[in-house]
Amino acid sequence: MKNRKVFTENEIKDLLRKYKIPTTDYVVIRDEKELGKIRLRYPLVLKICSPKFIHKTEVGGVRLGIKNKEELKKACREFQEKFPGEKFLAETMEEQGVEVIIGLVQDPTFGLLIMFGMGGIFTEVLRDVSFRVVPIKKRDAEQMINEIKGRRILEGFRGIKTNKDAVINILLKVSKLGVNFRNSLKELDLNPVFVREQDAVVVDARLIMK
Amino acid sequence: MDRFIFSDLLLKKMSSLDFFFNPKSIAVIGASRTPGKIGYEALKNVLIYEYKGKVYPVNPNAEEVLGLRTYSSVKDIKGDVELGLIVVPAEFVPSVLEECGEKGVRGAVIISSGFVEIGNHEIGERVLRIAKKYKIRILGPNTMGFKNANQGLDASFVFGMPYKGRIGIASQSGALGIGIIYYAVLERIGLSKVIGMGNKLDIDDADIIEYLSRDESTRVIGMYIEGLKDGKRFLEAAGKCKKPIVVLKAGRTKAGALAAVSHTGALAGADEVYDSVFRQVNIIRAKDVTELFDFANALAHQPPAGGRRIGIISNGGGAGILLADACSENGLLVPEFETRTIKKLGEVLPPLVKPRNPVDLVADASFYRYEAVMRALLEDRNIDGIIVTCVHAGYARPREYAGAVLKMIDMQRKDPAPDKPIICCWIGGREVEEVIEDLKIENVPVYRDTTRAVRAMLALVKEGSRLGLHNERV
Description:
With about 210 residues, chain A is of the alpha+beta class. In chain A, about 25% of the residues lie in helices and about 30% in strands. In chain A, about 40% of the residues are buried. Chains A and B meet through strand 5, strand 6, strand 7, helix 4 and strand 8 of A and helix 8, helix 9 and helix 10 of B.
């Protein structure tokens, strides 16, 4: 991972897996001839997978809810036309959960920080997030969750069931990753992370090195 | 291993700044004969309080200042000089400091301005090089100096000495630092030290925390900070500090978020980050000068709360409800009392008054009613701290109620078990002000409004959490 600044989703997800951070199973393909490689459960998601496109949704590089082979083939052809020469990532569309964001960012005063917040469009509008300097302890992870206003959603608001321990687990592992890349990492974005009744899973990720 | 221990000890020894803030001898370099000049005021301030060490004015153009023989250079002084108080213009500071180094001076307060604050970086770097060469510790430049109230030493150019006390204050801003001293005097809040950090060329926030955390006369550390030079060292020092730290942080900008690509980056605004990392090391953040002292005073004179369950006593329903609202807004609980407490309250309250939290002692409350109810609440196992209120209504007897508080506090200080904090809230006019004064003289934390009282209690709850006294999370 040396000498590069931007990484593709599959590379980042491999890194997350190394740190035992739960994320999606994926297959990377070049074109429709490789569709046979895909043995994933439908519905699928197809995404542009290139260091040139960090913001995938903004360039129309994400296709959700692909129900069968025909739809997959069609989506793949369209992507090939739109992004010639690029690779694509197919993965099972994860069952929706409460969306949260977990990240790492360099602060000019305090060094590498870990962040937690509620995900989705409200993240930036409400700035409902908390930070800690890495490494964090379990108590810090618990406090990070308790500090945000949206915590009630993670505490069973209106019968929504979420696994808070799974979030704490990811926070601690991201902190560990952060310690190992303390000086070289610029920003890591795990967004969204779906928090469900049984578990939590990183659905999309972005990594930028210094 | 041995090497590690050695370097650790060496570091501890070197970072001890006791010689600096409690020096055996002081040279005022740039002492002036003209009243109003900084060089005159600084020397006068060193002389007029209780300082017992040797004082040497340095001025090559005068034979005596304020009745003391002057020296043309610090090098001409026969005895040892531990601290130099430098008030010469900025351009002369490097040469004066060089002389201090040759003389063996260990610390220098550089009051002079004209350094990085006016864009002059070069001269500061020269000063720092000289300081490193001779191992001189520097406070400032561009600082008011410091006041060691407990030792009666004023090493600043500003007039005024705070009451002796337990709160050590450090301020990055000189003017605000001065304002803080006068505020503390007006509020009758005692201070152990007031330190102007100025440009923090050498001694910075982390050094001050390390020093005050080991200073016996300081129980609480209060700081005004605009920006930190070394955030990591600051957090390390704050994390290790065994005393509560209250910080007033200015500059709520979002500079850090400008160049961000990710969501995380865009959300990492400076103020949110400060808020979060302060919590990580248990720093209590105050939003203004009033809160800085409200928190520090409660922390200095009342025990930490073992939980967040608050009992409220008032002589009128309104104040009780306002306090309960403020508790709720600040994450504190106003729980039901134990059955035995309800029984005890039933015995002292008028028949129509319900014995519940907040307790309304009603308009005709007396010394006895306040005392009995305070005692009952302090013994209640559902209650971690109490807020006692007096509203100066028609039949109220503020002086009697204060008497009951003083009796309870006296008991608390003699026998600290059960160790529960008592916070007062006295609302009224001139007559109440006199009573507040009596409470303040006895170092009882007393506030003129409900939210201030509750927030002071919150500081004690946070301190209890820092010390691990809570079973539940706060």
